[in-house]
């Protein structure tokens, strides 16, 4: 049904690290499950390579190198290569990953086959469990967007400013119907009152968000003067009316920590949203602006066959634009697939005008339904 609606054939990959091997289970449409065991990917080996992969990709001092490639290729050989033939035979285009402890915050899109990144071949989402994934499809092209955020925070919040946020919000407002609120108007009370007045399909929060070790109370989204903890998110009842997509554009996750990993992977489920888009690490103000601008442009577009663009495909296209050098920041101009946007002096200069390194694009991940 979904393949017909979205013109995208999905597959589900379970990757479960065990002490003596990695277990892979591939679920394809209308076929029995395929099981593979990878003895070379013993848990200790696997987690060591994951740690190296995360460390090389998230280090801003290495954006002019390809130091991540060795671990990116090793992970591809362990997780994707054993299933590749089956994926090709079944003409799969979208991958849903349900992975075990230690793999939940791996930047899946940046795994590499020696020629190209995984995101250049498939659109990707990560899910906590398939039974919690809403598999209904809704076309988002005309949905209302509630875009909120802060470039500065109240004194009591004691948070670093995010100078690109006003541009991020205005870029969304130019393309999508809805409302946007900045700084003092970025409060939980205002968020709730806006939701009562209007049915928004997308909520975009351009602000600091942290997935931390320990209980869900330690993880939070920063509003103008208060923090919303993961525990409190359920109280917002974002499943009623249903929220198609929650975007947290400036997240930071404690990579490698079990509780933080679960918080990140369960974001859509915890919030009640059908899908979430969040970053695994804080990229940079200008880099985030570039990826978010491109994502919302792609979400609005359609394919040559006039098939709708699903959320995971819009993210994939944004990442490919970055990889291919079509998403750049040069002479204080942000160049995306739809033209140029001048950057104000308040936005710090980027170390790199080129956003092709996975440090800039691999942090962003669709969680929950890819549709």
Shape summary = globular
- Mean pLDDT over the full residue set: 93
CATH architecture of one domain: 2-Layer Sandwich
Main pleated-sheet profile: 8 strands, mixed
Name of the level-1 CATH class of one domain: Alpha Beta
* Low-pLDDT segments, ≥5 res: none
Cα gyration radius (Å): 19 Å
* SS strand fraction: 15-25%
Query: Separation of termini?
Result: 12 Å
Number of helix segments?
12
Helix content: 25-40%
Counted beta strands: 16
Q: Strand pairing plus helix content: what structural class?
A: alpha/beta
Order of helices and strands: HEEEHHHEEEHEHEEEHEHHEHHEEEHE
Would you give the CATH topology of one domain? Nucleotidyltransferase, domain 5
Task: Summarize this structure as a short list of keywords or feature phrases.
five-stranded mixed sheet; alpha/beta; Nucleotidyltransferase, domain 5; single chain; eight-stranded mixed sheet; 12 helices; globular; 371 residues
Could you explain how this protein is built, in words?
- Helices cover 29% and strands 23% of the residues.
- The protein contains twelve helices and 16 strands.
- Strand 8 and strand 9 (220-222) form a beta hairpin.
- Helix 10 (285-300) packs across helix 11.
- The longest helix has 16 residues, at 285-300.
């Amino acid at each position: 049904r979904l393949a017909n609606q979205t013109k995208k054939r999905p597959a589900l990959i379970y990757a479960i690290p065990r002490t003596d091997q990695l277990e892979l289970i591939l679920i394809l449409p209308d076929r029995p499950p395929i099981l593979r065991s990878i003895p070379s990917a013993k848990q200790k080996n696997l987690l060591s390579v994951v740690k190296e992969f995360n460390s090389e990709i998230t280090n801003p001092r290495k954006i002019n190198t390809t130091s991540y490639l060795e671990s990116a290729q090793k992970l591809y050989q362990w997780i994707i290569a054993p299933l590749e033939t089956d994926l090709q035979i079944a003409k799969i285009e979208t991958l849903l990953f349900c992975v075990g402890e230690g793999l939940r915050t791996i930047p899946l899109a940046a795994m590499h086959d020696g020629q190209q990144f995984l995101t250049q071949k498939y659109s990707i989402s990560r899910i906590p469990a398939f039974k919690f994934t809403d598999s209904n499809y809704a076309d988002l092209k005309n949905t209302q967007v509630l875009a909120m955020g802060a470039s500065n925070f109240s004194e009591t919040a004691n948070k670093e400013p995010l100078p690109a946020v006003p541009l991020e919000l205005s870029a969304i407002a130019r393309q999508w119907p809805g409302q946007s609120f900045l700084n003092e108007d970025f409060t939980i009370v205002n968020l709730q009152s806006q939701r009562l007045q209007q049915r928004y399909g997308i909520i975009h929060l351009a602000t600091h968000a942290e997935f931390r070790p320990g209980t869900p109370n330690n993880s939070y989204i920063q509003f103008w003067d208060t923090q919303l903890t993961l525990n409190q998110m359920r109280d917002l009842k974002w499943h009623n009316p249903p929220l198609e997509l929650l975007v947290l554009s400036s997240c930071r996750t404690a990579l490698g920590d079990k509780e933080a990993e679960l918080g990140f992977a369960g974001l859509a489920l915890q919030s009640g949203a059908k899908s979430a888009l969040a970053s695994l690490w804080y990229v940079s103000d200008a880099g985030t602006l570039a990826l978010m601008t491109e994502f919302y442009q792609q979400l609005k577009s359609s394919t040559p066959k006039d098939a709708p663009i699903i959320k995971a495909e819009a993210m994939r296209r944004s990442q490919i634009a970055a990889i291919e050098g079509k998403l750049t920041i040069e002479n204080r101009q942000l160049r995306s697939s739809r033209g140029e946007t001048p950057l104000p002096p308040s936005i710090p200069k980027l170390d790199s005008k080129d956003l092709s390194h996975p440090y800039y694009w691999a942090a962003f991940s669709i969680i929950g339904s890819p549709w």
